[in-house]
Amino acid sequence: MDASAINIAIVVVYLLAMLAFGWWGKSRTRNNSDFLVAGRRLGPFLYTGTMAAVVLGGASTVGGVGLGYKFGISGMWLVVAIGAGVLLLSLLFAGTIQKLKIYTVSQMLTLRYGSRATEASGIVMLAYTLMLCATSTGAYATIFVVLFGLDRALAIAIGGAIVLVYSTIGGMWSITLADQVQFVIKTVGIFFLMLPFTLNAAGGLDGIRSRVDASFFQMDGIGVQTIITYFVVYTLGLLIGQDIWQRVFTAKTPKVARWGGATAGIYCILYGVAGALIGMAANVALSYVKIAAKDDVYAEVAQNLLPVGIGGLVLAAAVAAMMSTASGALIAAATVARADVLPFVAGWFGKKVNTGDTENPEHDVKANRIWVLALGIVAIVIAIITKDVVAALTIAYDILVGGLLVAILGGLVWKRGTGLAAAASMAVGSVVTLGTMIILEINAKAPLDGVYANEPIYYGLIASAVVYIAASLLTRPTDPAVMQAWQRRVSGQEPEDAPEEVLAGR
């Protein structure tokens, strides 16, 4: 067998293993809590692995190596910003979030403010998670097209179907078990295979230094403004993303959520440094290869610098990174759609929707599977038919941070914050973010310049913060009964056998 056939065989075995974990997870899924948050029973090892897996996707793995190839050591800042977000969330808020015993970010807002006006946040969160899932699903094509010679649409469909199957069958348990394998594969692939082999091929750090521009070793080589943007968008976005919070909900105790997450954050930072070093070494070691785009560097390293078989494992690591993010975003989208968006929309028509069947848990699991399946198909279709899903994800990410961040974090840290202020800040922040983006796009010299600009998220955040503070001080404080119930919840006093409706904040 030639090297290409061996690499293909390794990736195929990995994909089949993911399907097997779907069936394994099914045996542990008996009710709503098992399907959506792994029964809230994850210990330190499983929790750290699944948290690191969900945040380190294709952008962190393939994109991180590409940034190192183009900008040198400063290419690490994208992934470092992600790691910083995980660290901050874990050390500052994860313990409190874990005690809430809920399923979505919107439910936290309802519990904290006692206002159903904040439920509109579910629509923004659904858009964000769905676009994140579509982006990760579309990323499979970068590996499958090269490896299998498939058409892009077919490559997306096959990769998406595999994630869809194991996520639908076993929910969060299947995703968690698959994440552990993906975490191990990524760790071995990046730290123990790609990093030493590429550094050796480039002649070590001294060999790199002698053949590249001095800016490759400057920490701000990628640009100070770009670094700031990474921290504003990714660090702040990770503090409030449903896909990340849903992992926090799986932790067995607040201590696991806090320190397991902090460990994952440190791991992410080291992962970013390793990716940048791999890219720098590849710039020297692959100088004889014509590379069209920086995102192709990862696959070129796997095929040209690594021994037979090891290249296949490294390619599997890239697929693992994309699948872990896609599966996490998919179950998050399904959770938000069923728990938040459906009741919110139905409420406009004067109807009440039951989002949980506590009398028959099997029916509830079946309903969740249907939501995961339906939204998974939607994400695959979006990834296939949309040429620039990243633009849609950027819009959703900007609204998420510019519109929702202040209300969510304000509720966690400021007792004087009120429901009316939260709803107003979300509305104003979202409108300012979108409005600024539209204005910049109209006046842009090139398509999508306004979408990718930094100003919308900055202006949205400022407007949201001003409105939140002013409206909170000008409106009546939150009902004492609501605040007392909130304090009981965050202190862990909510009884473990509380009805599912109470735990969901309904």
UniProtKB/TrEMBL annotation:
Lipid bilayer topology: Multi-pass membrane protein
TM helices/strands, residue ranges: 6-24, 45-69, 75-97, 118-148, 154-176, 183-202, 222-241, 262-285, 305-323, 370-386, 393-414, 420-444, 456-474
Keywords per UniProt: Membrane, Transmembrane, Transmembrane helix, Transport
Name of one Pfam family that matches: SSF
Cellular location(s): Membrane
InterPro entries assigned to the protein according to its UniProt record, in alphabetical order: Na/Glc_symporter_sf (IPR038377), Na/solute_symporter (IPR001734), Sodium:Solute_Symporter (IPR050277)
Domain of life: Bacteria
Annotated signal sequence range: none
Main location group: membrane
CDD domains: SLC5sbd_u3 (cd11479)
Family from the record: Belongs to the sodium:solute symporter (SSF) (TC 2.A.21) family.
Official protein name in the record: Sodium:solute symporter
Organism annotation: Arthrobacter sedimenti
